[in-house]
Each structure stands twice: as structure tokens, then as C-alpha cells.
Amino acid sequence: MRRVLVFVSLLLFTTGCSEPPQKEIDQAQTALDAARAAGAERYASGEFVSATGSLAKARAAVDQRDYRQALNYALDSRQRAAEAGRQAVDGKARAKRDTEARYGETATRASALETALRNATANGVPAKALKDPRAAVAAARADLQKASAAISAGNYEDATILLTEVRGKLDAAIAEIEKISPPRPAPRRAR
In which element (H, E) is residue 150 found? Predict the structure, then answer.
């Protein structure tokens, strides 16, 4: 009787793992697709790569007919993909917040350049000396519009790169204006 019980137990155990865990593999693939759509490749790349690797191992285990190992890898992949999706949402929100803050700082710097131009003009600095800073502020305003469009489209990396370049040009233009000294008034003639 004991031998029959062991035999039945072994039979149930082996039949429980006699088919590939296709349902779990499909669930893992669905979770990976959702994570990719959430931006996990960019904002949670480590966890996403791990999830992709586990799914590949699950498929390889199926090819080797090691269905128990395939099940373990598929479940691991699904869990990692779900975590990658959560991390991607958080990372995307953080990138948006940081990029919008950088946009605000750059727009403020553009306004500072415009103020410096007005002050220099009011102090009698010739228009010719202010040509490059005026061009810099016009280019900065156009680039700020491009950055705003990139932010709206969710291209935070592109917007950050553009805003960093614009900020550098604005700082250089402000430094240029600060170097220009206003013309000295002509000495008055004695009457």
C-alpha cells in the first residue's frame, strides 16, 4: 500500500509539471508590454531588463522541457515587469517635475537677460554693442517654445538637453552685457 501511495504521489507531481506554463508566460509577456508602454525601458531599465531576461529564461526552460523552472521564471518575470511599470510611472513623474523646474529657471534667466538689455539701452549702450545679446534672447525664446512642446509630448530628456544649452547661452549673453560699460557722458563746456 505504501508503494502505491508513493507511486500515485510521483505520478501526480510529474503530471502537474507535464505541460508548459503557457498561461503564466503569457501573463509575464502582458506585464512586460504594459511596463514598456509605461516607459520602463527608459525610467526603470534595470528592473525591465531583469524581467525580460526572466521571460527569456522561462521560454528556454520550456524548450528544455523543464516546466517547473519555466513556471518559476515566468512568475519572476511577471513580478519584475509589474515593479518596472510602477518604477516607470514614478520615474516619469520625477522627470517631468525636474524638467518643468528647469524650464522655469531658464525662462526666468531669459527674462533677466531682457531686463539687462533694457537697462543697458536706458544707460546709453549703443545698439550695436547689444546685437549678440538681443539675438541670444530671441533664440532663447524660440528654444523655450521648442522645449515646451517637448515637455508636452513627454520628451523630457530632449527638453532637458535643450534647456541646458539655452541656459548656457543666456548666461553667456548676460555676462557679455555686464562687461559692456555705458558710454561716458561728454564733458560739459563752461559757459
Answer: helix 131-152
Judged against a pLDDT cut of 60, whether residue 5 lies above it is answered with no
**DSSP classification of residue 44:** S
Q: List, in order, residues 6 or more apart from 65 with CB less than 8 Å away.
A: none
Q: Model-level pTM?
A: 0.70
Q: Would residue 112 count as lying in a domain?
A: yes
Give, rounded to a whole angstrom, the gap between the first and last alpha carbons of the chain: 134
Residue 74 — left, alpha, or beta (φ > 0 → left; ψ -120 to 50 → alpha)? alpha
What are 90's three cell numbers? 514614478
Whole-angstrom distance, CA of residue 160 vs CA of residue 164: 6
What is the Cα–Cα distance from 183 to 90, expressed in whole angstroms? 54
Identify whether 1 is part of a domain.
no
